[in-house]
Amino acid sequence: MKIKLKYRYRLVIYLLMLLALLALFFVLYSSRQSRGYSISALQGELKATISQVLDSLSEGKDPSSIQLPDGFGFTLADTLGNVLYDSRQRDISIPDNIFSLSEIVTAASGADGSALRSAVGEPDKEYLYYAKKSGNLFVRSYSRFRMSRPAEVGKDNNYFILIVVLLSALIFAFLYILRRLYKPLKTYSELVSAIKEDGNGLSEIDFDNDEMGEVGKEIADTFSQLEKAKKYKQQMSHNIAHELKTPLTGVKAYLETILNSDDMSAEQMRKFVGKAYSQATRLADLVNEVSILNKLDESNELGKSDEALYRLEEINVRSCLEDVLEEIGYKLEDSNISFDMRISSRLRLRGSYNLVYSLFKNLIDNSIEHGGKGIAITLVAGIEQVAGEGRYKINFTYSDTGKGVPAEALQRIFERFYRVEEGRTRKTGGSGLGLSIVRNAVAFHKGTITASQKEGGGIVFKFSLYSL
Q1: How confident is the model at residue 153 (pLDDT cuts 50, 70, 90)?
Q2: What total of structural domains would you count in the chain?
Q3: What is the CATH number of the domain that holds 239?
Q4: In this structure, what are the phi and psi dihedrals at residue 359, rounded to the nearest 5 degrees?
Q5: At what angle do helices 353-371 and 266-301 cross, to 10 degrees?
Q6: 27, burial (CB in 10 Å: exposed 0-12, middle 13-18, buried 19+)
Q7: pLDDT tens digits along 289-344
Q8: When you count CB atoms within 10 A of the terminal residue's CB, does the N or C end of the chain come out lower?
């Protein structure tokens, strides 16, 4: 079974490994320093030994009578390479030709020579040799080398300062890195927890202002958008099912009445068929509106090109409005509503005819259904050249003198399925999708739309359509 360590524990292990490497470095460094100090100290003692030997010889003493400290020895040789004396009965390190020894060669050049090597026949023992030429005589002192002078290392304060500085720097650097590495992990842990809680607490997460923080923010934003889309789709499905249910129930009820009434007169049957047809028409309009909105979503939100979903063409705006009035003019007459269209017959726009048609139709239907009888509708349009873009837009002002919309509802009237007056709107057959189609049709033509209360009563829509 593979054991998985937590990230923080792994970091601690890494720290211990680094400290172990640092300790090894200091051990090797200390060993090297100690060896160097030991050699230097022993060379000083060997040099003092040579001085003692030379002083004794100058006093006329016999070489064999010279007493040296324990462990020290000396050799005397002439300039021809002949060994004259060695303080030991047999010095196993003296070859036949003394000039093959590096310390003698150096001494022959006039400088003091020194060498550290294993004795012949004793590879596990090292000896330090120090040689000096005095007149026609070579004097060489020697002693077995041992690293037994750590106290000398302690005299080097820079060594300990270096250790303290490097160790402190390493610890602080690692703690800083540990903090920098662990903070985003902690933040991402909070992010995961918030996502598991359906986004609760996402806004409270403090992301760093760096690449890791940017990635975290993008993840949080993406999740929020997905959650909104999920809730939106759920709400849409619920609303569509609810909206479809009403006309379907009506159609079914009227047809069942006809089927179950054997003695129904032709006039009554015609009446019920008419009602069923009216409900079926409402159902078809709802399906068509949902289809329009879905296609607009693809264009406005998914980034598809304009012509990928709707055919673009040259539109005579006034002619398009006349087509709308031809279809729903009877509704205006039935409600005694006047329509004042102040639009030039030469005003043209390149865009989607179907969407522009649907835009005007839904605005007028909205006034008919919610404005009341006997009101007046006014539509004014004017062209505006867009500076620096080489194209133009048409600014529209649509207003009616109806019942208007409460100020608190103005920001929501473009939402899908939103109704200012739930009960009355259902009775008149509105789906709550009309103004949402208007907003999306405007967005398709790269424009904007606002709604406000009309002075004296009613509502005003101001919007613009760019020629695509």
Answers
A1: very low
A2: 3
A3: 1.10.287.130
A4: -60, -55
A5: 120
A6: exposed
A7: 677 767 666 665 544 545 566 789 999 999 999 999 998 999 999 999 999 999 99
A8: N
